[in-house]
Design brief:
2 domains, mainly alpha, MetI-like fold, single chain
């Protein structure tokens, strides 16, 4: 009686085919997602280094020429002085120099750094003890506060922008306090980022064993000392993440800056400055250069914090 036995060769071949197909699909997916995420940024860099006339005549060229880089970096020779006529032409022909000098991006960078830095510092100073209290202490209204953090975070900025604008105008009319200024924008950024900071830090504090703090308090430390010397060092990865997210939100925020700073060009932030480049009179290469300028600091900060975040989360927290 004949028996149908599967050939070992066919089975082995099918396994090899499935394995190789899986490897191919894995690397194809990786390459595809890298392409769709990295290529737009590379194309932005490419256009920012090329002259506008060259972009018009050859819009599909993927690599800038050597003379394009020389044109972009030519204004660097004028930092310590030089021929005024040459320097004026070099700044006009270099997209980055023109954006930084002629379109006042140096001032916008300073304003954005001040606003974002203040927002990060205030958010961390307020959210760390607040999130610790919500995580560790038991008090009336604790559950309501937890839900309130989520509810506030769920409201989009466009919903509360108009009420905030009317509120600030009424305060100015009644009390004479000008809140449509960098100070008022900083307060709005703080109110917008605190729910996110509280939510992230509270969840991280919940993962830290309370036994570590109790051991410190048994040794004579107060709760504040235990928070400063035990909990905060263990929570530094979360604090770094919160600082990075808050900085990104404040650095890229456009709506509130448009509402409260549009009448004060000296206080404009980078997103507002970038908007003025989106015009028919301004070459697209200038817009790409401004986009690179606003994107690079966030990328650099992310790479810096990433090394810190991948470190040991609780290394040295418990001996034994």
């Amino acid at each position: 009686m004949a028996q149908n036995v599967t050939s070992p060769t066919s089975t082995f071949s099918r396994e090899i085919f499935e394995r190789r197909l899986g490897v191919f699909l894995k690397w194809f997916s990786i390459a595809f997602f890298i392409l769709i995420t990295v290529f737009p940024f590379y194309w932005m860099l490419n256009l920012s280094f090329r002259p506008f006339q060259d972009v018009l005549t050859d819009p599909t060229r993927l690599i800038p020429r050597v003379q394009d880089f020389q044109t972009v970096f030519a204004p660097l020779s004028c930092i310590f002085g030089g021929d005024p006529e040459f320097c004026e032409g070099a700044v006009r022909n270099s997209s980055y120099a023109a954006v930084l000098i002629q379109f006042n991006f140096l001032r916008f960078i300073r304003n954005s750094l001040i606003l974002s830095g203040l927002t990060v510092v205030l958010s961390i100073v307020i959210s760390v003890p607040a999130a610790y209290a919500i995580s560790r202490l038991r008090f009336r209204g604790r559950s309501a506060m937890n839900w309130g953090i989520l509810l506030i975070y769920m409201f989009p900025g466009i919903v509360i922008s108009i009420p905030l604008f009317v509120f600030f105008v009424r305060i100015q009319q009644s009390l004479g306090i000008q809140l449509r200024s960098p100070v008022g924008v900083t307060l709005i950024y703080l109110a917008s980022t605190l729910p996110l900071a509280l939510y992230m830090l509270r969840g991280y504090f919940d993962t830290i064993p309370p036994d570590l703090e109790e051991a410190a308090m048994i040794d004579g430390a107060t709760r504040m000392v235990a928070l400063w010397r035990v909990t905060i060092p263990l929570a530094m990865p979360a604090i770094a993440s919160v600082a990075l997210y808050v900085f990104m939100i404040a650095w890229n925020e456009f709506l509130y800056a448009l509402l409260f700073l549009i009448e004060n060009p000296a206080a404009w932030t980078l997103p507002l400055g970038l908007q003025q480049l989106d015009s028919q009179e301004v070459p697209r290469t200038f817009l790409m250069a401004g986009s690179v300028i606003i994107s690079v600091p966030v990328i650099v900060l992310f790479l810096f914090f990433e090394r810190f975040l991948t470190g040991g989360l609780t290394a040295g927290g418990v001996k034994g």
